[in-house]
Design brief:
The protein is α+β, with helices and mostly antiparallel strands and about 140 residues long. It has one domain: Immunoglobulin-like. Helices cover about 20% and strands about 45% of the residues. The chain has three helices and nine strands. The strands form two sheets. Strands 1, 2, 5, 6, 7 and 9 form a six-stranded mixed beta sheet that branches. Strands 3-4-8 form a three-stranded antiparallel beta sheet. A hairpin with a 5-residue loop joins strand 5 and strand 6. It is elongated and about 40 Å long. About 20% of the residues are buried. The N terminus is likely disordered.
Length: about 140
């Protein structure tokens, strides 16, 4: 009978638990590999885990416009019902300290399959990274 070392068994458990179901997210600052693949300088913060299933964030682009950064992305309703949520985009400098940014949550309502393009320009030349935060409207 073949025996396996504890290291191999531990690796197998980790591998299977990582592959089972969705990523473990709840009231999160999602710096998972999935979101880093969308853009390495953009962090997604989601207040409700269900919102990740209903709203997709696609085509994240970050570029310089003169001395300021511009962030563009698209919300997509992947559900059959209308989704009401609000979002805010905040900015951080290279050391991840907050810089001038939005202070008001923007409400958004997307019907089934609807897409909405968003474009935001930082208010400070110190801005280097963006944080997109989402939460359901209740």
């Amino acid at each position: 009978m073949k025996t396996f070392s504890p290291l191999v068994l531990c690796f197998a458990v980790l591998l299977f638990s990582a592959c089972a179901g969705k990523s473990d997210v709840s009231a999160i600052r999602t710096e998972t590999d999935f979101f880093k693949q969308l853009h390495p300088k953009v962090t997604i913060v989601v207040e409700e885990e269900d919102l990740l299933d209903e709203v997709q964030i696609a085509d994240i682009k970050l570029r310089s416009r003169g001395r300021l950064k511009q962030l563009a992305f698209r919300f997509i309703n992947s559900e059959t019902n209308t989704i009401r949520f609000k979002y805010i985009v905040k900015w951080e400098d290279k050391e991840e300290f907050p810089v001038d940014g939005a202070t008001v949550w923007e409400p958004l309502s997307l019907t089934s399959g609807m897409q909405k393009n968003i474009s935001v320009i930082a208010k400070s030349p110190k801005a280097d990274r963006a944080i997109i935060s989402l939460k359901l409207i209740k």
